Amino acid sequence: MALTTNEVKQLADLARLDLSEDEVKAAEQDLENILGYVERLQKIDASGAEPFAMPARTEWREDVSLPCDHASCEIILSNFPERSGDLLKTPGVFESPKGKKA
Amino acid sequence: MKLNELTIAEARKKLDAGDITSIDLTKACLEEIKNQNPTLNAFIEVYEADALEQAERSDERHSRSECWGALDGIPLGLKDNLLNQGKETTSGSNILKGHISAYDATVVRKLKELGAVILGRTNMDEFAMGSSTEHSAYGPTKNPHDLERVPGGSSGGSAVAVAAHLALGALGSDTGGSIRQPAALCGTVGLKPTYGRVSRYGLMAMASSLDQIGPFAKTAEDAGLILEALQGADKMDQTTSDHAAFVPEWKKDLKGVRIGLPRQAWGAGMHDEVRSEVMKSVEILKSRGAEVKEVDLPYADEALAVYYVVMPCEVSANLARFDGMRYGLREKGLPLFETYAKSRAEGFGPEARRRILLGTYALSRGYYDAYYLQAKRVQSMIRRAYEQAFSEVDMLVTPTAPNPAFRLGEKTSDPLTMYLEDVFTVGVNVAGLPAVSVPCGKADGMPVGMHIIGRHFDEAGILAAARVFEEKI
Question: Is B276 a catalytic residue?
C-alpha cells in the first residue's frame, strides 16, 4: 500500500521527527516496500484466534518510592541536557505548538 | 594456548587449581583487545582499570579459598544496551552519547555479585535494530573471519568479542535473532532463552514483548554456565517467570530425542552450502541416536510479517521517551515541538527512524485493527503451530540464517533484504521459545550456524543436544 507524501509528513509529525524532503521521499519508498511485505497477514483468516498477550505474573509489587543514594542522584542530574542547580530546564510548555498540528 | 582462548569451563578449572589467576586471564583478554579491537571495533569502550581491579578482588577471594561461583574472575563483555551503574551506556545511538547509567540492570547486578570481570561494552545496531551492526553510531563491527564482511547483528560486538577471543563470554539481547544470527555468522554459540527466563530490568527496551537477554559463548556448556547466573524471577520485571530454574542436563548421546525439520523452513531461499552443511549436521545428530523426521509448521513465513508489525509498534512506543527532555541529546534554543522533533531527527539513525514511522503508522487510527490486532491474532496461531509441532517432536532444527555473512554495505540500501535475514529466527521470539545457534561448518568460507529450537523452558534439552553435536565434530 502506497502512502502519499502528506501522509508520511503527518506520521513524522505524530512521531516528532523533523525529516527533510529527501528523508520523507526515502521513507515513502521504504514504507511502501515493508507494508507490501506485511500485507500477507490480511489474507489469513484469524477470526478464530484471540490477540496474543505474553504471559505475565498477575500479582503486583507494591508501588513505593525507593530511596535514591547521593551518587545515583548525581548521575541522574548529570544526564539532564540542561539544568539549573538541581532542577531540569525545559523549553516553555505553553507556547503554541507547530502550526497547531500537535 | 593463550589464556584468552580458554573456554569458561576450562578457565574455571585452572583458576580453582591455582594454575592461573584472574589477573592473568583478564590481562590476556585486554592484550587481545588492544591488538584486535582497533580493526574489529567489537568493544565501544574498555574498562581496563576496573576490570583489573575486579580480577584482583577475585584472586584475593581465591587466596582465602572463597569462590562466588562459576563466573568468579571470568572476563566478559556487555552489550551497550545493558545498564551498568556509573558507566556510559548508549544502545549504539547518538541520542544517548554521554548518557551514564544511574543503576545496574538485574543481569549486570547478578554478574557483579557473582564476581565476574566486566571488560567493557560492546557495539550493536542502534537500539538493537539491525542484522549487521552497521546501524551503530560508533561505526560498524567487522567479522573476524573476513574483515570485509559483517558480523551479523544486532549484538555483533558481543559475537565478535567471543569469536575473536577478546572475552571468554558476552551478553547480548535477542528480539528477532540478535543473539543467534551474529553467533552463526561469527562461529560462536548464541542462546536466546525462553521469554521470561531472564529479567529485562535495565535492558534498554526495543520491543518489550519479544526482547530477551542471553549469552554468547565458545561452547554450549559455557552458555549454560552464563544462563545459570542470569536466570530467575525478578520483582522488577513482571514478565519474568517462576518456572523451575534451568539446570544443565548433559547427555552422552541423543537416544530417544525426537528432532523435527519444519517442512516450511527448508524450502527455497537459502544458500546451497548453508543447506548442505546444516543437513550434514542433522545426519550427525541422527548418528548420535536422535530420531529425525519432517514436521509441519504452518505460518513460518507469516512470522516475519507478524514480527515486522508488532516490533515497530513497540519500538515507536518505547523510543518515545527519547525526546530531548530528561536525558540524551537536546537541540537547544527551540520551542517545545521543534525541540522534540529536531532532537529526535538528529539523535536517531535511519533504521530507528524508519521503524518509528512504521510503528506510528500501524498504531494510528484506522490502521490499528488491520495491522497490529491482526498481527497479534496471527501470533496466537503461530504459537499454536509450534505447540502442535512439539506434540510430535522434542526440538526443531533449521539453519540459523539463510546466508553466510554478507559484505559491509551490501544490504543497507534495501531494508527489506536485511529483514529477510531474520526469517528463521523471528518465529522463536514471536512464540517466546528458547533456541540456540551452534557453529556447524562453513559456506563461502564463512561460519554457518545450526538453529535448535526447544519447548518453553527446555534450555537444558537444546543445550544438551548442542553439546552432543559439538563433541562429535
Answer: no
Residues of A in contact with B97 (CB under 8 A): none
> In terms of CA atoms, which chain A residue is nearest residue B420?
A37
* Structural domains counted in chain B: 1
State the ipTM, two decimals. 0.92
Whether B202 is in a domain gets the answer: yes
Give the C-alpha distances (Å, rounded to integers) separating B187 from B28, B135, B144, B391: 21, 21, 10, 31
Active site residue B154: yes
Residue B118 CB neighbour total at 10 angstroms: 21
Task: Give the integer Cα–Cα distance in Å for B346 and B94.
Answer: 8
- Exactly one of B27, B58, B79, B101 is catalytic; name it: B79
Could you list the residue range(s) of the whole structural domain that residue B226 is in? Answer: 3-230
d(CA B274, CA B201): 36
- Specify the DSSP element, H or E, that contains A33: helix A21-38
The answer to whether A56 contacts chain B (CB < 8 Å) is yes
CA dihedral B457, B385, B468, B282 (to 10 degrees): -170
Q: Is residue B399 part of a domain?
A: no
Residue B50 lies in a domain: yes
Q: Is B199 a catalytic residue?
A: no
What Å distances lie between residue A68 and A13, A83, B3, B216, CA to CA? Answer: 36, 19, 41, 33
- A36: its cell numbers: 507490501
Residue B412 lies in a domain: no
Give the residue from chain B lying closest to A92, CA to CA: B336
For residue B54, give the CATH number of its domain.
3.90.1300.10
Fold of A5-43: Histone, subunit A (1.10.20)
A-B interface: how many C-beta pairs under 8 angstroms? Answer: 179
Residue-by-residue pLDDT tens, chain B, 473 positions? 899 999 999 999 999 999 999 999 999 999 999 999 999 999 999 999 999 999 999 999 999 999 999 999 999 999 999 999 999 999 999 999 999 999 999 999 999 999 999 999 999 999 999 999 999 999 999 999 999 999 999 999 999 999 999 999 999 999 999 999 999 999 999 999 999 999 999 999 999 999 999 999 999 999 999 999 999 999 999 999 999 999 999 999 999 999 999 998 887 789 999 999 999 999 999 999 999 999 999 888 899 999 999 999 999 999 999 999 999 999 999 999 999 999 999 999 999 999 999 999 999 988 999 999 999 999 999 999 999 999 999 999 999 999 999 999 999 888 888 888 899 999 999 999 999 999 999 999 999 999 999 999 999 999 999 999 999 76
Amino acid at position B340, single letter: Y
What are the boundaries of each domain within chain A?
A: 5-43
